[in-house]
Amino acid sequence: MRFEDAALVVIDVQNDFCPGGALAVPDGDAVVPIVNRLAPRFAACILTQDWHPPGHRSFASSHPGRAPFETAELAYGEQVLWPDHCVQGTAGAAFHPGLATDAADLVLRKGFRPGIDSYSAFHENDRRTPTGLAGYLRGRGITRLCFAGLATDFCVAWSAVDAAREGFEAAVVEDACRAIDLDGSLAAAWDEMRAANVARVFAADLQPQ
Fold first, then answer.
1. Which end of the chain is more exposed for a tag (fewer CB within 10 A), N or C?
2. What is the helix (H) or strand (E) element at residue 9, kind and residue range?
3. Is the distance from CB of 177 to CB of 156 less than 8 angstroms?
4. If phi over 0 gives left and psi between -120 and 50 gives alpha, with beta otherwise, what is residue 51?
5. Which of 5-14 are b and which e, b meaning 16 or more Cβ less than 10 Å from the residue's Cβ?
6. Which one from 45, 50, 84, 110 is the annotated catalytic residue?
7. Which residues of 149-184 are buried (b: 16+ CB within 10 A; e: fewer)?
8. Quick one: pLDDT at residue 207?
9. Could you tell me if 30 and 18 are in contact, meaning their C-beta atoms sit under 8 angstroms apart?
């Protein structure tokens, strides 16, 4: 990888996705030291931050009689109903305290529209409404992206697949991610990423050339 035109995109390393959080990803905090070591190797570092208003439509609590991890058919398609998490301004929405946020060139907040979820760093879950990240990266001359963070099978995978569809060379740093693995979602996510030509790498592979 030529690091001068590459960015590390760090997905949702927030308290609610780490142990003790409202939607904890198993071993989620283990990605923090790996991300901190990787970030200085890249020309840019982008952090995404899940940033939901109270009562977000993706929350199970917004659907009376429904439980977390059930699915619902919303206007834009099937949606997993989540426990309330990453509510704007709360401690759960804050980045993990060990994450070196000063290394970030950009913090991109997503999921802030009340009626639609946003797994991907590039598009809302309708797969059409852009976040603006693609334009930012192109403006910086970035052509290659490595993804790390939480969770591999949801926001990381959706972001990596969308990056490839936008014409970026995309890779997921497997040991810098952790997964939820909801009913086989991890294997399905890797299959989708492979089909989209997203590379599967490890942090040790990312040595400057």
1. C
2. strand 6-11
3. yes
4. beta
5. bbbbbbbbbb
6. 110
7. bbbbbbbbbbbbbbbbbbebbbbbbbebbbbbbeee
8. 74
9. no
Those residues with Cβ within 8 angstroms of residue 36's Cβ, 6 or more apart along the chain or in another chain: 98, 99, 100, 103
Distance CA 110, CA 90 (A): 15
Token representation of residue 31: 């990605």
Residues paired with 164 in a beta bridge: none
Selecting among 12, 29, 50, 162, the annotated active-site residue is 12
Per the CB < 8 A criterion, the answer to whether 60 and 82 are in contact is yes
Three-class SS string for 79-128? EECECCCCECCCHHHCECCCCCHHHCCEEEEECCCCCCCCCCCCECCCCC
- Nearest CA to 82 among 65, 67, 64? 67
Paired residues of 75 in beta bridges = none
If the chain, 209 residues long, is cut into consecutive pieces of 10 residues, what is the mean pLDDT of each piece?
82 98 97 96 96 97 96 93 97 98 96 95 93 96 97 97 97 97 94 98 83
pLDDT value, residue 103: 87
Q: How far is CA 68 from CA 15, 41, 65, 71, 90, in A?
A: 19, 38, 10, 8, 20
Which residue shows structure tokens 């199970």?
60
| Annotated active-site residue in 18, 86, 146, 155 | 155
Whether 110 sits among the annotated catalytic residues: the reply is: yes
Query: Is 155 considered catalytic here?
Result: yes
